[in-house]
Specification:
about 80% helix; about 0% strand; protein transport; membrane
Amino acid sequence: MGNANSSNKISAQDRAILDMKIQRDKLHQYQKRVKTITDRETEIARECLRQGNKSKALLALRRKKYQESLLAKTDQQLAQLETLTSDVEFALVQKDVVFGLQQGTAVLKEIHKEMGGLDKVEMILGESQEAQAYQEEINEMLGGKMSNQDEDEVEDELDAMQREVSGVRLPNAPSGSLAETNEAALPDVPQETPAQRAKRRREERAREQAAEPLAA
């Protein structure tokens, strides 16, 4: 009997694998639900641009980017933990696995907060005092949780969406020589490189953050 009980005992490695499967299942559930929300946020961004409200469009896209990054972060972390738990030297990395699972649980809780439903998403469009308070709350929350790269990617998406909404289209495929097409298509103004554009945007964000206390 004693031998049977000891052989059925769940090891720390078995427990870690079980916890990861639970986290993976939750993540897959959240991915489906977040997709519905982020699709609506994209629509809201387009609607705001049509109304000429670029700041609200940016807020919707920033919120969408944050939600997508949470899912990607958790997915990547779980993949790393799966590698660790399958390692023959599990005992050596057990603390790292436990810590990683704790972090995964914390991020899943954060994702769960984003499951507030489409009614919250619609408040980005609102003009009421409650809606404006919610928009300010989201802006403040996102301010410390998105990297410069995330912010740049959001603004690139906003620029592309703005061109789409305004009806700007890329030029047709060139029919003449490449040199002739370039001369005809490009204006005589300096073009920003990606690095210059990223630097300009970081400086603009820094100025906006510095101005916020004064505005308050």
